[in-house]
Amino acid sequence: MQLLVSVGSAAEARAALSGGADVIDAKDPRRGALGAVTPRVLRSICAAVRFRRPVSAALGDALDEPAIAREARAAAAAGVAYVKVGFRGVTRPDRALALATAAARGARATGGATKLVVVAYADALRAGSLSPSALVEIAARAGAAGVLLDTAFKDAGGLFELLPPETVGVWVSAARAAGLMVGLAGGLAARDLGTAAALGADLAGVRGAACTGGRTGCVSRARVARLSASLGRSDGRLRPALV
Predict the structure, then answer these.
(1) Of 101, 129, 196, 204, which residue is the least packed, with the fewest Cβ within 10 Å?
(2) Spatial separation of the C-alpha atoms in residues 136 and 146, rounded to whole Å
(3) Is residue 80 part of a domain?
(4) Among the options 1, 34, 55, 84, which is catalytic?
(5) Which residues does 117 contact at the CB level (< 8 Å), separation at least 6?
(6) Rounded to whole angstroms, how far apart are CA atoms 47 and 25?
């Protein structure tokens, strides 16, 4: 299983990279679960990583097809490997499919290899979103590369507090059966990484666990290194990335 670390700046990207993160995820934690960084910050993060690791970019929750296609295209042009899109406030499967398809189309528009990751929420009812199982089918139909199960709200506990591991495991199995890469995130701590790996996740995403001062604090190289070591790696050692 690989480790994704969300960063909000080039400096944080360098800390995550040197700590041993497998995927550097551009995200502004002050703007919610999928808060997008500015185009300038995204370019600076990509420049700091310099293709040594894949970079993913959170684009927020899709509500408008032309807008999400345009945002995905811009992120692809910056050099990211993945764009992450959520569907908070979208309750119709046909609408979610249209939005996901637009995002996938935008990601491919520059002719590169940028792929779409559809984000489902464990707290879907509170977020006014489709269920995680419904979004697996939508991701597969839209041509997404993967799905990520996250939490929309950060005030009610982490992923495994909202859903029992057994339920998450069923979802992971369904996503893998659909041919999708599978990620887990949402308030994950070091103790949760073993559970995520045992459930068959391809990657685990962290923010707060990698920071001093909580999720709106600063990414710490030492904290990332400890998380990486908990997965059986040597401190700061770079590994072939999942692409």
Answers:
(1) 101
(2) 9
(3) yes
(4) 84
(5) 56, 82, 83, 84, 85, 144, 145, 146, 147, 148, 181, 183
(6) 13
Examine the residue annotation and report whether 84 is marked as an active-site residue of this protein. Answer: yes
For 170, the domain range is: 2-230
State pTM to two decimals: 0.93
10-residue block means of pLDDT along the chain (243 residues)?
98 98 97 96 97 97 97 97 98 98 96 95 97 98 98 93 98 98 97 97 97 95 96 51 41
**Cα–Cα–Cα angle for 125, 64, 72, rounded to 5 degrees:** 100
Any domain includes 198: yes
Tell me whether residue 243 is in a domain. Answer: no
In this structure, which amino acid lies at residue 182?
Answer: V
Q: What is the CATH number of the domain that holds 84?
A: 3.20.20.70
DSSP line for 213-242: TSTTSEE-HHHHHHHHHHTT--TT---PPP
* DSSP for residue 208: G
Determine phi and psi for 50, rounding to 5 degrees. Answer: 55, 45
The rounded distance, in Å, linking the Cα atoms of 28 and 229 is 26
Spot the catalytic one: 1, 15, 19, 27: 27
Dist CA 161 CA 122 (whole Å): 10
Torsions phi, psi of 117, nearest 5?
-120, 120
One DSSP character per residue, 92-150 reads -HHHHHHHHHHHHHHHHTTSS--EEEEEEETTHHHHT---HHHHHHHHHHHT-SEEEEE
Task: Quote the number of domains for the chain.
Answer: 1
**Strand bridging mode 218-219 / 211-212:** antiparallel
Told to judge if 27 belongs to the known catalytic residues of this protein, a careful annotator would answer yes
